[in-house]
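[Backbone geometry]
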Amino acid sequence: MVLHLMRVFPTPAIQLQAQETDSAQMDKLTLEQAIEIALQNNKRVDVAQSEIAIEKAGRYGAITIPRTEFSYSRGEFNTPTVKDNMYGVSQRINFPTVYLSQLRLAKAKVKSKEELMTIVENELISDVKSAYLRNAFLLENERLLKRQDSVFSNLVKSSTLRYRTWESTKL
């Protein structure tokens, strides 16, 4: 049901793509099943899940401590006649609140991506519900029109028969 409608009435915000399925299977498709299938097969949901995974993996690398620096110098440092070797090691460490802020930022990015995923899922559910209900409306409208056509066909047959038997005049 839903899939026929998606081909006929794409939503203005996004182009919905449907997979072809057996028509007997589509008649038995409930709204909840349609939503579940859409959530499993939608690429935007997959992208949102990947973005969450990326941010969670990057959370552990959020704290950046600068590299350790090594230096070497050779020359006359203490006495003018003796060649000296000077080795140096330095490590710059920021104030601890900097690292705490970096961790908070990483957690906020993860939360942001999770909320974006919720938005994507809600938009998809809304699109599926709209398409499903529109399709149900159109199917019911088609059924009613066929029934009405049947009634009018019978009326035409009946009127034609009455006219031929001279029971009424031509309208």
About this structure: The longest helix spans residues 96-164. The chain is about 65% helix and 10% strand. The helical segments are 2-8, 23-27, 31-41, 43-59, 96-164.
